[in-house]
Amino acid sequence: MKKINWFKLGIIFVLFVIFSAVVAYATQIVFTSFHLPIHRYEPAAYLTIFLVALVVNLSLIPLPFAVSLMIAAAAIWNPILVALAGSLGASLGEMSYYYLGYLSKKVAIPDDIIGYQTVKSWVDKYGMWAIAFLSFQPVIPMEIGGLVAGLAKYPLGKFLIALWIGKFPKYIILIYLGSALMHLIPVLR
Fold this sequence. Notes:
Layout: H1 6-33, H2 42-58, H3 65-74, H4 79-93, H5 95-103, H6 116-126, H7 128-136, H8 142-151, H9 156-184
Helix pairs in contact: 1-3, 2-3, 2-4, 3-4, 3-9, 4-9, 5-8, 6-7, 6-8, 7-8, 7-9
């Protein structure tokens, strides 16, 4: 098993915070410069967040853009509704990995994928709560959980509910943490 490279992880985190701050700052400049009535764009903002989270989680290469967009939107609109839209889109997007596991044969997915056996034992033992935990935590990729749940033919309804149970509080925490970090940067005030 590989060791975690904390330096690279720290660099990625700093880049994530900077990217989120730039997106939030640019969004605020656009709305204030053009004197746009922010309240008129609220439904479109939630729909955009939903769609971006859906597309990012459908893709095989997850990007921090969805969370950065949520942090930027939460600076203007209701953070709880932003997290709700993002978590619903992300949960539906994660179905791509579930179906990849569901439709593939056991031979198509090797058992030596890092963390596969661990995640499989968790899902077998704890079911829905293991999936919710995987969805909430940031270290083990949720994609492995989706593959395992699909391979195990875990019920789709329970899978989606478990995903949302993990993603919704995770996004609320990330949004408030990201907003707090942005307020600590003097240039963005």
